[in-house]
Amino acid sequence: MNRRTFVGTLSAAAVMGRLGWAADAHRIEKIGLELYTVRDALKKDFEGTLSRVAKIGYKEVEFAGYFADLKNFNPAPKKTRELLTSLGLDAPATHIPYSAVMPENLPRVIEASEIIGHKYIVNPGIDEALRNTADGWKKAAEAFNRAGKETARSGIQFAYHNHVIEFKPVDGQLPYDILLKECDPKLVKMEMDLGWAHEAGTDPLKWWAEYPGRFPLVHVKDFEANGTMTDVGKGVIDWKALFAKADLGGVKHYFMEFDDPKSPFESVQASYEYLEKLRF
Length: 280
Hints:
The chain is α/β, with parallel strands linked by helices. Helices cover 44% and strands 15% of the residues.
């Protein structure tokens, strides 16, 4: 074997080794938790709850409720960041109410988000008065574009989170389609709640194919055949099929969520164990 052949053989072996490692590692690298799942425990013991989440194995969390009171952030952003760091947690995203999207409130949210380390600011629902007409959804899209410009100045991406209503026609149009068409793709991304999308009878893969790369965040929420929410992996959603196409949607962060579990931490544990073992 000459030198060139020898080097080529080593290179081929290295490539095969990398491919084998990549195939084995086709999984969720950092499993996240939407903290709405443990909201009651969080209110009673913020530090202790985050500590339990970290001990289970979660690496990322998404805040919900932290910005409900725009005059009082508790704990303070700096203390929150220090706690997250001490527990080895990242908080790449937070949910904010529609009122916080407004120009008079958004700067305070952005300032706190910068301190905590959020990379995404997400609105999970518009005012009810806007939901009943296509023009209402277009007005929301305008507000999101304005918000996206503001958050972008701080290096933060604005995004929107769906429920079921976005997939029910209004004035002959799907609100989700309106948002995706009216929102600037650079300024506004989507956090697709895969569980609610399933309950709405829509196919996430269809949306990912039509609007590739616009879904950096997903909520991982499962349902039984009768429409009852359950632990991830115990329902009917085919997670392997969805996650195998995650690159098409541009998915970067996966947040497990269960809205009203009987035993929140048991659900958080069971869902984590399923997702940790999942390969796709």
